[in-house]
């Protein structure tokens, strides 16, 4: 772990991170500018962004490799150019799926590029970015770091902690670490049940990352304590129930991903 990463890890535990998962996606269509704007309004600390890459090599905010669930398009993101994807409606699905939360302003929302998101919020936001399916998108890490450098969110004279990068792919994180060892990285982990993490795994993760992001349902107090005692951050995903949030805070997590940043914010305020 290099100096900047060390400083970040020292600073962050005192601030429990409220990470707006796909924006305030409990209230607005995920990964739209509307969802990110609402996340900021609801006082999330970071907006979480999943990245996919278009046929013409543009990084766009989308969780799935396919367009079907969150737009009126269909097929793989990698088979369409950005121009094609910009013609799609990324909001109407939400109104149909959640009529009680429907908002006419969501109709016709566009899929944003990473650059557009950063242009919208600049340095007023913090970004928690995931490289999705990096095996499908060769070169996505280089493109990501180029964009972050261009907007001075990383690199010389950038403010520490404006960007955290996360991935389930260790290879993707190692690649990023080799390009810029100062970027704080989170190793995402997925457990089927009763998560355990060995000292060997922890020692290995510490070589390139500042923390882990496990699915919250599989972890317990002992897991959290072991990770924290080893000096790693822990940001479980995706926690939407208030009682689950309380339990995890009691166990000592250093932040969590939630679709309801306002609910977590109110709990953090009370600590
Ligand atoms: O990035 C944390 C969490 O978002 C991982 O799960 O599938 O929602 O990206 P997913
Ligand atoms: Ca994610």
Q: Distance N terminus to C terminus?
A: 30 Å
Share in helix: 25-40%
Ligands bound to this protein structure:
SN-glycerol-3-phosphate, calcium ion
Structural class: alpha/beta
Order of helices and strands: HEHEEHHHEHEHEHEHEHEH
Mean pLDDT: 96
The stretches of 5 or more residues where confidence is low (pLDDT under 50) are none
Q: Report strand %.
A: 5-15%
Explain what the structure shows.
By secondary structure, the chain is an alpha/beta fold. The chain has helices spanning 3-11, 33-41, 82-86, 92-97, 114-121, 140-150, 170-179, 199-206, 221-229, 242-251, 261-269; strands spanning 17-20, 46-53, 59-61, 127-131, 163-167, 185-189, 211-214, 233-234, 255-258. Strands 1, 2, 3, 4, 5, 6, 7, 8 and 9 form a nine-stranded mixed sheet that branches. The mean pLDDT is 96. Calcium ion binds at residues 48, 50, 130.
Structure keywords:
single chain, 271 residues, alpha/beta, nine-stranded mixed beta sheet, 11 helices, 9 strands, globular, binds SN-glycerol-3-phosphate, binds calcium ion
Secondary structure layout:
Layout: H1 3-11, E1 17-20, H2 33-41, E2 46-53, E3 59-61, H3 82-86, H4 92-97, H5 114-121, E4 127-131, H6 140-150, E5 163-167, H7 170-179, E6 185-189, H8 199-206, E7 211-214, H9 221-229, E8 233-234, H10 242-251, E9 255-258, H11 261-269
Parallel strand pairs: 1-2, 1-9, 2-4, 4-5, 5-6, 6-7, 7-8
Antiparallel strand pairs: 2-3
The structure holds SN-glycerol-3-phosphate (G3P) and calcium ion.
SN-glycerol-3-phosphate binds next to loops.
């Amino acid at each position: 772990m290099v100096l900047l990463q060390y400083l970040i890890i020292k600073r962050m535990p005192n601030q429990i991170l409220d990470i707006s998962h796909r924006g305030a996606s409990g209230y607005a269509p995920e990964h739209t500018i509307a969802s990110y704007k609402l996340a900021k309004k609801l006082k999330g600390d970071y907006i979480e962004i999943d990245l996919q890459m278009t046929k013409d090599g543009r990084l766009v905010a989308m969780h799935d490799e396919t367009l079907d669930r969150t737009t009126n398009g269909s097929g793989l993101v990698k088979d369409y150019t950005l121009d094609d994807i910009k013609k799609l409606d990324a909001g109407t699905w939400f109104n149909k799926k959640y009529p009680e939360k429907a908002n006419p302003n969501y109709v016709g929302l566009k899929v944003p590029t990473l650059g557009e998101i950063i242009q919208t919020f600049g340095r007023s936001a913090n970004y928690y970015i995931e490289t999705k399916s990096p095996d499908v998108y060769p070169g996505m890490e280089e493109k990501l770091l180029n964009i972050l450098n261009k907007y001075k969110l990383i690199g010389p004279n950038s403010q520490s902690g404006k960007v955290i990068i996360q991935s389930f792919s260790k290879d993707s994180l190692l690649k990023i670490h080799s390009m810029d060892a100062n970027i704080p990285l989170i190793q995402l982990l997925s457990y089927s049940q009763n998560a355990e993490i060995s000292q060997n795994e922890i020692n290995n993760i510490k070589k390139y990352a500042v923390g882990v992001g496990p699915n919250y349902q599989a972890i317990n107090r002992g897991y959290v304590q072991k990770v924290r005692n080893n000096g790693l951050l822990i940001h479980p995903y995706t926690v939407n129930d208030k009682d689950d949030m309380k339990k995890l805070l009691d166990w000592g997590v250093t932040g969590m991903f939630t679709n309801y940043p306002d609910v977590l914010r109110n709990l953090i305020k009370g600590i």
